[in-house]
Amino acid sequence: MNLDKNNTTNIILEVKNVSKMYATHQALNDVSLSVPKGQIFGLLGPNGAGKSTLIRIITQIIRRDSGDILFKNNPLQPIDAENIGYLPEERGLYKKMKVGEQLLYLARLKGLSKNEAMNRLKIWFEKFDIKPWWNKKVEDLSKGMQQKIQFVATVLNEPELLILDEPFSGFDPINANIIKDEILELKRKGTTIIFSTHRMESVEELCDHVALIDKSKKILDGSKKDIKNSYRTNVYQIEHTTTIQNLGDKFEILETENVDEHFLTYIQAKESGLSNELLHQLINQTEIISFQERLPSFNDIFIMLVTGKTTYKNTQQAIQHYE
After folding, report:
1. Which residue of 60, 137, 165, 186 could cross-link 89, Cys pair, CB 3.0 to 4.6 Å?
2. d(C-alpha 158, C-alpha 85), whole Å
């Protein structure tokens, strides 16, 4: 399924029919996707689906067997690495080097002058409150501290495209929120971000656009809003004061339960666009405290597409998702 409606002039990275084979294993099979400028693009998939292979091809760590990749409407070139930042899931710092020396070294490799690098590092060290770490060896830092340093190293040269592979791995909730806020700030400043993760709550919170790869093929691609709307189940959750009777042939009461002296009822409309009619019927029967449509989460969409289990498409099972 492809729900992408973006204009190609607003695309920073375009992957066209890319395939990659390792010996007898097909890692990518004719994968195409377009990453809109200035958005957070969620790249999802189960382990072994091909996400890491695609990222390594985009970052020019490995070569594709076929297909094309365009960066800012031109064929991807080695020089483009200067404008593409990559934070791998497996971090790669030199453990024996001191933090400050290492970050300065990496900044110079990315083309920054010593003065510019020092100025930017000062800002990041103050922002992350890590000034005491400058002369510490990387091996003396916790995993979370090392990941903060790796994040700084990745964004220091202000790349136009930033690829983050499980950026919250190993962080406690407080530091995860700090990194999340920085990701959103980078987006506000115009950075395009490819965000690869297994944490569906992060996808819900951060991503504008999502692509799902499974078994080497892209099986879903589109804006977050369009995808969620395409998998809507017309299930409504209503909190109310008295019992609800029969609602006619257009609606089915899935389940009712008692919650804090009120009732919580799940109702499925058998056709879309019937929310006003449902609300009208309910008003004649009970006092409504809350009324909302329950859209499937990305976690549910992910599981359904990867496993083939249509849990929230089944009327009798739909309520199980919402319990």
Report:
1. 165
2. 8
